């Protein structure tokens, strides 16, 4: 590979997502300026919070060379846990319980992956089914409304100093994720495993323990997203999270985290989530049908994947 | 010595499991003491089995196709639109063609764009589902009687879909065992690098594999649509899990490189039996989902479990040998 | 007092007994060599000590205490660190992160990056390397990576350091740095287990030598009491001049001609030719580009420029399939993961290249496939229980015969073989040599790439030596000896006067 292409990809890994965000923004500006008005952008930012929070966790999983396809089901399960318990034990205890459930799901994923030696995406594919089943059984397949506990709404409706709480939450999660990624042993070990698992093992890293921790992180962030989602809708349901994993994974891959592992881009994932949220909102305002919106997200994911594919192709041609 | 001790879950284990399971059901549930119960089971199984023929190839090649359920829905939605306009035969041909196109598209994404299969097909799982919704936002009912007969009639007491599955299975087995394409699929599943050195075109093989998946999935979709008598874009949600479970329970290794279509078909019948057994014992449908998930985890972990068991056997054997030697040397002293 | 006591260690892999009942003891503070031919079990033994593998039976004592080494962490706790033959680095991490991966320095929970980099810098300086702690390991050269690997092992400050072929990728200067390092470690009281098949290094560095042969312990001797010949005799278990000697035969016309083959960053301006019936060796240090050159000829690597002509016709070099059709056979050095199709039968493995020619109407003919198998079985003395046996269950030697047969089945005129006897036991080695010799006699042009100099010297008619991607030696049979080849391979001299270039 010559220096110019090398430099291009290095640039792309860091700023490509920003360029795409800018381009999409300009297109929307041309189509309907209302989409990129300050008030709508604030909404876009708030709306990105659930995807964003889960994407922060997913970045660790993908960086470790894995995937977590069960985050959508964890999110559903968590909304059910909050909705079913809030009337009896109050808001904060039910949220705490919900986060614990998220952690537990992560532990289950981690144990299945490390102890039964199953590839991450396969294992989480199976637990996706099981967690959703658990949510269905728990909620008896019904939507559980939190009409008597409106206090749950504070996370999605209130603001502090004019900044929506959702925005504060998502930014806080990303700041923490960044610090963990860059400045802790766990971050380095996660990258080490994604970079070369056998070498990580040979270097004395406890790969199993680190991987379990990674899936606890994705489970916990998915649970946070679930609490936020149940706050938005004041509802718990076993199907709320259907397809949510796609958004989270798309954000991360758009953000420039390498599918092959070892190289993560935390802030990229944040911008990826923003981009998805912007596309959704823009298409809504333009009056595009729901089915086409779904198609658009799939196309965006394919686009992000194709770019990483093209990168692999140019690197292979250099071999 | 070591070889004898190793457990072989694969090959025909699933067949014995199925037969034992059937005997238990017949013994404990009066529902299973007539032929129609088994006719229903094999009919249900044939939908999974037909699609499983293609999936077996994908899994042997070391990948997964998560988009088959959405392909079924999309094919079905298009099919119900075509049927009133052009009759049974032309619409069936067109749907098979559509399946081939969808599969080839997946294949190109994977082989030419170098996108890992499971994530490419994950994207297409949502993409094809959205397309199905665009084609048919509301359920469409099939009026054509002839078309419905395709799945509800019997030949010598055997449901027609089951016969279709057997035909698909035989075709699949011949391709897998007797053609270069089959050998190349196995080769890729063993090692991409070795396949490349042996002069095998990996992209070409992959595209052909996904084309086959599309064809078999379309065939399954035709049978399913005929049996349900309607289409809607949300149909067969989670069907990909059932198909993948069948292939993996059938002994095809998830890491690829080996597998058999016959055992996939047997496993499909096994899964259909479980489903029908759970219905017979009135297990709640939500609970059934959890059970499906657990079965899937079990199927996926067979290799892991086998490794544990074999490790244990090897260790206890060497421990025994060591003990014997110690005893021997003690006696010698 | 013995610092390490190994008692009755045995270890088997499917199809091969790697170690049987090996016992030996290592004294504190010595540099102790473990030698043996390929497949003698040296690396397996070291991996057991390092916690990578677990022995099927046997015991390990360190400083008189029985150790249960089940994992790499256990080994580190017991004070053992290992520099493995295969590189065990994480390319997306920095040099410092790689070195300290197992014990990253922290302030509370926060990573202390400054301390980490400073300590890495100290280590790098003490080893006279020109690296920065913040360099990405993936961007380094193979020999730099090897030095990082060594730095990593030293950083653990273990009492026992195992070095498994540490000089494979190093040039002379770097080898000198390593020598100095080992002497310094020894002075500071460390015990070093040194594995190498370069006998010169053994005599330069070590106090005592233990010899393994075919997975069994042979002897331990003081190095100074041994001559070069004694050691080789102990390693191979027979007189040295019983080494395979090619009988020599007349060579034919030039078959393959390579002109100015270049690939930026790998090799440049490579020109040579091979004659029918000739066994041409290619030697060089690890990472010098010798594999890349032949892989380019086979179409696995795309060259930037240059031509390859076979039988007077210029090749298009579009890939392995084209190369097979043009009449080039190729046997990989990485038999396990890039050669055999492990889970497929021996028969399927044999015919993978030529399915089209044994098929009728797209269906593979059982009869023709079986016939081919029986032919090669007889010709190559292959041992397997049935045509449906999985190839992974055969011994390394038999697997290698299948790879060779697969390449020959497509009627090649030039055979490229990398590391023809890697991981093969002594008996099968001789068989492979005989086969190569026979094939050459029947007019095949054969290129053998090998890191075993004795092998090249004994079977090849002529040898090319590669240094930093360029050919620095073209040695005829009479000029070939280990010293001359090593001089060319390390760039200290150039000898291009061999015949028939």
UniProtKB/TrEMBL annotation, chain B:
What are the TM regions of this chain, as residue ranges?
Answer: 12-29, 89-110, 117-135, 155-176, 207-229, 241-274, 286-309
Q: Which domain of life is it from?
A: Bacteria
**Major localization class:** membrane
GO MF annotations, alphabetized:
transmembrane transporter activity
Coiled coil (UniProt feature)? none
Alphabetical list of Pfam families matching this protein: BPD_transp_2
Q: How does it sit in the membrane?
A: Multi-pass membrane protein
Q: Name one GO cellular component term.
A: plasma membrane
Q: Where in the cell is it found?
A: Cell membrane
Instruction: Give yes or no: UniProt keyword Transport.
Output: yes
Alphabetized UniProt keyword annotations = Cell inner membrane, Cell membrane, Membrane, Transmembrane, Transmembrane helix, Transport
Report what the protein is called: ABC transporter permease
Record organism = Anaerotruncus massiliensis (ex Liu et al. 2021)
């Amino acid at each position: 590979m010559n220096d110019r292409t090398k430099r291009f990809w290095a640039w792309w890994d860091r700023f490509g997502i920003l360029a795409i965000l800018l381009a999409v923004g300009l297109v929307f500006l041309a189509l309907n300026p209302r989409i990129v008005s300050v008030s709508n952008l604030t909404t876009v930012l708030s709306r990105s919070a659930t995807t964003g929070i889960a994407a922060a966790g997913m970045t660790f999983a993908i960086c470790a060379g894995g995937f977590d396809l069960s985050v959508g089901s964890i999110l559903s399960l968590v909304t059910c846990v909050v909705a079913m318990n809030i009337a009896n034990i109050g808001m904060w205890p039910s949220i705490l319980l919900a986060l614990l459930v998220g952690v537990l799901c992560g532990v289950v994923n981690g144990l299945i992956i490390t102890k039964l030696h199953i590839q991450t995406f396969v294992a989480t594919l199976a637990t996706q089914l099981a967690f959703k089943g658990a949510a269905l059984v728990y909620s008896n397949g019904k939507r559980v409304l939190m009409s008597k506990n409106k206090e749950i709404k504070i996370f999605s409706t209130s603001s502090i100093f004019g900044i929506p709480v959702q925005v504060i939450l998502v930014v806080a999660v990303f700041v923490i994720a960044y610090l963990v990624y860059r400045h802790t042993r766990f971050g380095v070990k996660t990258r080490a495993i994604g970079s070369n698992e056998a070498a990580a093992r040979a270097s004395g890293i406890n790969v199993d323990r680190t991987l379990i921790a990674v899936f606890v992180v994705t489970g916990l962030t998915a649970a946070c997203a679930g609490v936020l989602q149940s706050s938005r809708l004041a509802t718990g349901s076993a199907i709320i999270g259907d397809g949510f994993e796609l958004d989270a994974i798309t954000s991360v891959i758009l953000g420039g985290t390498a599918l092959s592992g070892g190289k993560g881009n935390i802030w990229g994932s944040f911008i990826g989530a923003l981009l998805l949220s912007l596309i959704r909102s823009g298409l809504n305002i333009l009056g595009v049908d729901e089915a086409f919106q779904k198609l658009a997200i799939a196309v965006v994911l394919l686009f992000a994947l194709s770019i990483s594919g093209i990168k692999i192709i140019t690197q292979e041609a250099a071999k | 010595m070591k070889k004898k001790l190793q457990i072989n879950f694969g090959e025909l284990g699933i067949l014995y499991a199925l037969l034992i399971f059937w005997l238990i059901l017949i013994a404990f549930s009066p529902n299973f003491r007539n032929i129609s119960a088994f006719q229903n089971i094999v009919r249900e199984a044939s939908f999974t089995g037909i699609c499983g023929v293609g999936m077996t190839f994908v899994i042997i090649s070391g990948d997964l196709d998560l988009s088959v359920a959405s392909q079924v829905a999309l094919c079905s939605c298009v099919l119900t639109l075509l049927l009133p306009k052009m009759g049974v035969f032309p619409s069936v041909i067109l749907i098979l063609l559509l399946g081939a196109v969808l599969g080839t598209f997946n294949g190109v994404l994977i082989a030419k764009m170098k996108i890992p299969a499971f994530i490419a097909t994950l994207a297409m799982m949502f993409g094809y589902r959205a397309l199905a919704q665009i084609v048919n936002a509301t359920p469409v009912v099939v009026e054509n009687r002839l078309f419905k007969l395709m799945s509800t009639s019997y030949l010598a007491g055997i449901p027609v879909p089951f016969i279709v599955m057997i035909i698909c299975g035989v075709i699949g087995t011949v391709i897998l065992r007797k053609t270069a394409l089959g050998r190349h699929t196995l080769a890729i599943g063993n090692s991409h690098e070795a396949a490349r050195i042996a002069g095998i075109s990996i992209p070409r093989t992959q595209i052909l594999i996904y084309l086959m998946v599309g064809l078999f999935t379309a065939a399954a979709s035709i049978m399913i649509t005929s049996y349900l008598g309607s289409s809607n874009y949300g149909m067969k949600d989670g069907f990909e899990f059932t198909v993948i479970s069948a292939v993996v329970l059938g002994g095809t290794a998830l890491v690829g490189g080996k597998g058999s279509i016959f055992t996939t078909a047997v496993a499909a019948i096994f899964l259909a039996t479980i489903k029908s057994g759970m219905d017979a014992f009135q297990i709640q449908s939500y609970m059934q989902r959890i059970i499906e998930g657990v079965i899937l985890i079990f199927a996926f972990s067979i290799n892991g479990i086998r490794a544990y068991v074999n490790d244990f056997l090897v260790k206890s054997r060497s421990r025994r040998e060591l003990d014997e030697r110690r005893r021997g040397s003690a006696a010698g002293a | 007092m013995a610092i390490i006591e190994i008692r009755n260690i045995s270890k088997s892999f499917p199809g091969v007994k790697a170690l049987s009942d090996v016992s030996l003891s290592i004294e504190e503070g010595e540099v102790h060599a473990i030698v043996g031919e390929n497949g003698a079990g040296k690396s397996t033994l070291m991996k057991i000590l390092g916690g990578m593998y677990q022995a099927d039976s046997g015991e390990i004592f360190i400083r008189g205490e029985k150790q249960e080494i089940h994992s790499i962490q256990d080994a580190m706790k017991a004070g053992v660190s290992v520099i493995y033959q295969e590189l065990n680095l994480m390319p997306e991490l920095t040099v410092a992160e790689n070195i300290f991966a197992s014990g990253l320095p922290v302030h509370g929970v926060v990573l202390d990056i400054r301390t980490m980099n400073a300590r890495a810098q100290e280590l790098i300086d003490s080893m006279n390397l020109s690296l920065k702690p913040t360099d990405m390991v993936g961007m380094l050269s193979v020999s730099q990576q090897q030095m990082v690997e060594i730095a990593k092992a030293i950083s653990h400050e273990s009492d026992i350091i195992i070095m498994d072929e540490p000089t494979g990728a190093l040039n002379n200067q770097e080898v000198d740095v390593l020598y100095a390092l080992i002497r310094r470690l020894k002075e500071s009281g460390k015990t070093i287990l040194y594995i190498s098949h370069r006998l010169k290094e053994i005599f330069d560095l070590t106090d005592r030598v233990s010899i393994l042969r075919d997975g069994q312990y042979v002897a331990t001797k003081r190095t100074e009491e041994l001559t070069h010949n004694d050691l080789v005799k102990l390693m191979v278990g027979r007189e040295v001049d019983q080494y395979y000697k090619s009988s020599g035969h007349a060579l034919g016309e030039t078959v393959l001609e390579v002109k100015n083959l270049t690939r930026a960053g790998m090799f440049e301006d490579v020109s040579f030719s091979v004659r029918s019936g000739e066994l041409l060796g290619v030697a060089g240090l690890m990472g010098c580009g010798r594999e890349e050159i032949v892989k380019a000829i086979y179409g696995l690597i795309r060259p930037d420029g240059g031509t390859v002509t076979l039988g007077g016709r210029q090749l298009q070099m579009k890939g392995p399939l084209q190369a097979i059709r043009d009449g080039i056979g190729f046997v990989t050095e990485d038999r396990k993961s890039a050669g055999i199709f492990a889970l497929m039968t021996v028969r399927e493995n044999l015919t993978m290249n030529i399915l089209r020619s044994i098929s009728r109407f797209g269906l593979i003919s059982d009869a023709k496939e079986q016939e081919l198998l029986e032919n090669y079985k007889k010709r190559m003395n292959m041992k397997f229980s049935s045509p449906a046996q999985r190839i992974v269950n055969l011994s390394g030697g038999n697997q290698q015969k299948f790879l060779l047969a697969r390449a020959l089945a497509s009627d090649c005129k030039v055979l490229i073989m990398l590391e023809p006897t890697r991981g093969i036991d002594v008996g099968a080695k001789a068989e492979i040599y005989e086969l190569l010799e026979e094939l050459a006699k029947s007019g095949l042009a054969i290129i053998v790439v090998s890191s075993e100099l004795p092998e090249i010297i004994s079977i090849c008619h002529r040898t090319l030596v590669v240094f930093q991607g360029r050919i620095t030696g073209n040695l005829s049979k009479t000029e070939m000896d280990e010293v001359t080849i090593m001089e060319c391979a390390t760039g200290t001299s150039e000898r291009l006067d061999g015949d028939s270039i």
